[in-house]
Design a protein that fits this description.
Length: 198
C-alpha cells in the first residue's frame, strides 16, 4: 500500500433507525472537512443489481450480492456504508431454520470495517417512524429477532462496534457518529485492511 488508505465505516441497525439519514449527513460532514469519501448502500438501488435486490426486499425477487470495495479504500477514499454483511447475517438468521454462523459464511473475507456503528432503536420506536412495514423484513416480532442476532454479532471482539442511541435527536446522533468516524479515519489510515470473520 503506497499511500494512506481510507477507512471502511459501516452504519447498521434495525429498520428505520436512521441509517441512511446519518450516512448522508456523515458523508457531507467528512467532505466539508476535506476527506475523500463516498457513500455506498446495501443494496445500492441505483444499479441494476441493486434494483433486483430492492425488488427482493419489496417481495419481488430473490437475489443477494455484496460488491468489493478494496480498491477505493486502498486509493485513500473513506467509504461510509449503509448496511453491510452484518445485516445479511442478522436478517437471514432471524428466519426459522438458519443459524447465524452459517449465514456469516458467504461474507467471510470481505473487507473488514474499521468501525461499525449500530444505531440502537427499539422495534416499538421504529414502528413510529414513517413508512414502517413496507418491506419484507419490517414486521415487529421479526425485528426483535433481528435485534437479538445483531446483539450476538456485536459480541465479536474482532469487530470495532460502537452502539449509538438512535432515539436521540438527528443532530445529536450525527455529532456522535462524526466524532467516532474522524477518530477511526485517523487511526485506520496507516493500518492494513483486515478481512471480515477470519
Amino acid at each position: 500500500m503506497a499511500g494512506k488508505r481510507g477507512a471502511l465505516i459501516v452504519l447498521e441497525g434495525v429498520d428505520k433507525a436512521g441509517k441512511t439519514t446519518q450516512c448522508n449527513k456523515l458523508v457531507q460532514a467528512l467532505q466539508q472537512s476535506g476527506q475523500s469519501v463516498e457513500m455506498m448502500r446495501f443494496p445500492d438501488r441505483t444499479t441494476i443489481i441493486g434494483q433486483l435486490i430492492s425488488a427482493y426486499l419489496e417481495k419481488k425477487s430473490p437475489l443477494h450480492l455484496l460488491p468489493s470495495m478494496k480498491k477505493k479504500l486502498e486509493q485513500g477514499t473513506t467509504l461510509v456504508v449503509d448496511r453491510y454483511a452484518f445485516s445479511g447475517a442478522a436478517f437471514t438468521s432471524a428466519k426459522p431454520g438458519f443459524c447465524l454462523d452459517w449465514c456469516k459464511k458467504p461474507d467471510v473475507g470481505l473487507p473488514k470495517p474499521d468501525l461499525v456503528m449500530f444505531l440502537q432503536l427499539s422495534p416499538a420506536q421504529a414502528a413510529l417512524r414513517g413508512q414502517f412495514g413496507e418491506e419484507r423484513y419490517e414486521i415487529d416480532d421479526f425485528q426483535r429477532t433481528v435485534q437479538q442476532k445483531f446483539d450476538q454479532l456485536m459480541k465479536d471482539p474482532s469487530v470495532n462496534w460502537q452502539e449509538i442511541d438512535a432515539s436521540q435527536s438527528i443532530e445529536d446522533v450525527h455529532r456522535e457518529i462524526t466524532t467516532h468516524s474522524l477518530n477511526t479515519i485517523n487511526t485506520a489510515q496507516n493500518l492494513p485492511l483486515g478481512e471480515l470473520w477470519k
